[in-house]
């Protein structure tokens, strides 16, 4: 006997800075996925906290630069990247 399940992966944003309406939105999305037969429904990280994913507030966390490897393999650097590497 094979156990197969339908899984839904939600690609949606929360209601910015509004936990209550983010919860309502999540409930609606769960209902929609369940009606289509999903038994497991995955949401983006930090969806319920209503943290505005994509807004950086002037900070950079986990950014990558071309660095020395990019120079060796010939990836061109923008002026901003070159300036960031100097700092």
Strand order of the largest sheet: 1-2
Order of helices and strands: EHEHH
Low-confidence runs: none
Strand content: 5-15%
Helix segment tally? 3
Q: How many strands? A: 2
Q: What class, by secondary structure content?
A: alpha+beta
Count up the domains: 2
Shape: flat
The main pleated sheet reads as: 2 strands, parallel
Compute the separation of the termini in Å.
Answer: 60 Å
Mean pLDDT: 77
Task: Please give the radius of gyration in angstroms.
Answer: 20 Å
Helicity range of the residues? 25-40%
Which secondary structure elements does this structure contain, and how are they paired or packed?
Blueprint: E1 6-9, H1 19-35, E2 38-42, H2 67-73, H3 79-86
Parallel strand pairs: 1-2
What do you see in this structure?
The chain has 87 residues and is α+β, with helices and mostly antiparallel strands. The protein has 2 domains: 1-55, no CATH class; 58-87, no CATH class. It contains 3 helices and 2 strands; from the N terminus they run βαβαα. The protein has helices at residues 19-35, 67-73, 79-86; strands at 6-9, 38-42. It has a two-stranded parallel ribbon with strand order 1-2. Strand 1 (6-9), helix 1 (19-35) and strand 2 (38-42) form a beta-alpha-beta unit. It starts with 5 loop residues before the first strand and ends with a helix.
């Amino acid at each position: 006997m094979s156990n197969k399940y339908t899984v839904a992966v939600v690609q949606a944003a929360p209601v910015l800075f509004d936990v209550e309406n983010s919860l309502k939105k999540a409930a609606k999305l769960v209902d929609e996925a369940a009606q289509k037969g999903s038994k497991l429904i995955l949401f983006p990280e930090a969806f319920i906290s209503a943290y505005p994913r994509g807004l950086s507030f002037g900070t950079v966390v986990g950014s990558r630069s071309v660095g020395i490897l990019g120079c060796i393999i010939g990836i061109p650097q923008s002026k901003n990247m070159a300036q960031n590497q100097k700092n």
